[in-house]
C-alpha cells in the first residue's frame, strides 16, 4: 500500500479501468475452491498446484508473458457455470469499487471457454449479471469487450466472431468492442486484419494489445492494419519518437499496466515504465491492473506504484484521470459526470 500523503487523493480520484481481463481476477483461493466444486483436476506434475500459497509464490517468479499465460489458461479451466463467471467478476468489481473505479471496461476471452466446451452464453450470462449488480449496487458503469486469442489460428478467431450467439451479443450492444490478446511476439497484428475489418463493419469499438513484449512496429500495425482506437500496453512506443508524436497527435489512448510490466519482465522496475516520457510527449494513457490476481495488485496499487516511482503532481494525476474518462467508450453524459466528480475532488483537495 502507498505511504504517500497523496494516497487519499489517489483513492478518491474517479478512475476508469480499461485493461482488466476478468479471468485474470481469479485468485488462487477461488481457483482451488472452484476446482474442487467443479471436479476439475489441476496439473499433478507441477508443485505450484499443491496449494494457494505455492501457486502465489510461483506467480512471483514469472519469467515472461508466455510463462504467465501458461498458468492463466490452466487457472480459468475451473470456470464452468454462469455463477462461477458471475462470482469472479463480482469479486473484481468489489475491489474496483473500493479503489475508486467509476467506470470499468472489462475484457474476457470467449475462445478460452468455448474451446473447453463452455457455452459463450453461459460466460456472458455470468459476466452480465455481475455488471448489472456493479451498476446497481456500486454505481460502477461497465462495458464488456471480447478479446480474440492471437496464438490461435485466424480461421478459429473468425469462426468465433461469426458464431450465432457472439454475433447476437455484438448486434444487441451487449458487447461494446473487441480486443486482441495472448502471446504477442509470434503473432503480429496484421494477421487479424480481416477480423478487425468485420468487427468495424459491425459497429464495434476496436482495441488491441500491442507493444507489451512486441516491438513498436506492432503498435503502428495495430493502428494502420487493424484501425484500432486504443492500444493496450503500448510501452514499446517510448523507443520510437516519430510514432510517439503520431500517437500523441491523434490522441490514441494507451491502457498502461505498470505492475504487470514488472511482473512479466517487460521492464525491470516501475521507474522504467515510460510514464514520464508519455506525459512529456502528450501521449494519453490510463493506468490499469491487467490481471490483478496474478500480478499482486488492483488498480489503486498500480496508481500508488506509479506515484512512488514518479512523484506526480495533482495536476498530472488530474490529467491522467481526465484522459481515462475521454478514452472511455461510454456516452458523453457519463463522461461529463465523471469530469464533474474530478473537478469536485480537486476543489475539495485544494481547500483542505
Ligand atoms: N498481459 C497480457 N498480455 C496479453 N494477453 C493477456 N491475457 C491476459 N493478460 C494478458
Ligand atoms: Zn492485458
Automatic annotation (TrEMBL):
It catalyses: adenine + H2O + H(+) = hypoxanthine + NH4(+). Its cofactor is Zn(2+). This is Adenine deaminase. The record marks 233 as: Important for catalytic activity. Belongs to the metallo-dependent hydrolases superfamily. Adenosine and AMP deaminases family. Adenine deaminase type 2 subfamily. GO terms for cellular component: cytosol; nucleus. The active site is at residue 212. Its EC number is 3.5.4.2. It holds the Pfam family A_deaminase. Catalyzes the hydrolytic deamination of adenine to hypoxanthine. Plays an important role in the purine salvage pathway and in nitrogen catabolism. One of its GO terms (biological process) is nucleotide metabolic process. It is an enzyme of class 3 (hydrolase). Binds 1 zinc ion per subunit. It is found in: Cytoplasm; Nucleus. Zn(2+) binds at residues 19, 21, 209, 290. One of its GO terms (molecular function) is zinc ion binding. Residues 14-344 form the Adenosine deaminase domain. Keywords: Cytoplasm, Hydrolase, Metal-binding, Nucleotide metabolism, Nucleus, Zinc.
Amino acid at each position: 500500500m502507498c505511504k504517500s500523503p497523496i494516497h487519499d487523493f489517489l483513492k478518491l480520484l474517479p478512475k476508469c479501468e480499461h485493461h482488466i481481463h476478468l479471468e485474470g481476477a481469479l485468485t488462487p483461493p477461488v481457483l482451488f475452491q472452484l476446482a474442487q466444486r467443479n471436479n476439475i483436476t489441476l496439473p499433478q506434475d507441477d508443485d505450484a498446484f499443491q496449494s494457494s500459497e505455492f501457486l502465489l509464490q510461483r506467480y512471483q517468479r514469472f519469467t515472461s508473458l508466455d510463462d504467465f499465460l501458461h498458468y492463466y489458461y490452466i487457472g480459468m479451466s475451473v470456470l464452468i457455470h454462469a455463477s462461477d463467471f458471475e462470482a469472479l467478476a463480482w469479486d473484481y468489481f468489489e475491489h474496483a469499487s473500493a479503489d475508486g473505479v467509476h467506470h470499468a471496461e472489462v475484457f474476457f476471452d470467449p475462445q478460452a471457454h468455448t474451446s473447453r466446451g463452455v457455452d459463450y452464453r453461459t460466460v456472458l450470462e455470468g459476466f452480465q449479471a455481475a455488471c448489472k449488480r456493479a451498476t446497481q449496487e456500486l454505481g460502477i458503469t461497465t462495458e464488456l469487450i471480447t478479446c480474440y486469442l492471437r496464438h490461435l489460428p485466424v480461421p478459429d478467431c473468425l469462426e468465433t466472431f461469426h458464431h450465432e450467439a457472439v454475433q447476437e451479443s455484438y448486434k444487441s450492444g451487449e458487447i461494446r468492442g473487441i480486443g486482441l490478446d495472448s502471446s504477442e511476439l509470434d503473432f503480429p497484428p496484421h494477421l487479424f486484419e480481416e477480423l478487425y475489418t468485420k468487427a468495424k463493419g459491425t459497429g464495434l469499438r476496436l482495441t488491441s494489445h500491442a507493444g507489451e513484449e512486441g516491438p513498436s512496429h506492432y503498435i503502428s500495425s495495430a493502428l494502420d492494419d487493424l484501425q484500432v482506437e486504443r492500444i493496450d500496453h503500448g510501452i514499446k512506443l517510448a523507443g520510437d519518437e516519430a510514432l510517439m508524436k503520431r500517437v500523441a497527435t491523434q490522441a490514441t489512448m494507451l491502457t498502461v499496466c505498470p505492475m504487470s510490466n514488472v511482473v512479466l519482465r517487460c521492464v525491470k522496475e516501475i521507474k522504467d515504465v515510460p510514464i514520464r516520457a508519455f506525459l512529456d510527449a502528450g501521449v494519453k494513457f490510463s493506468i490499469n491492473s491487467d490481471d490483478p490476481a496474478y500480478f499482486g495488485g488492483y488498480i489503486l496499487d498500480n496508481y500508488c506504484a506509479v506515484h512512488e516511482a514518479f512523484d506526480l503532481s495533482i495536476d498530472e494525476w488530474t490529467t491522467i484521470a481526465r484522459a481515462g474518462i475521454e478514452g472511455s467508450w461510454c456516452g458523453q453524459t457519463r463522461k461529463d459526470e465523471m469530469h464533474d466528480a474530478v473537478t469536485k475532488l480537486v476543489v475539495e483537495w485544494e481547500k483542505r
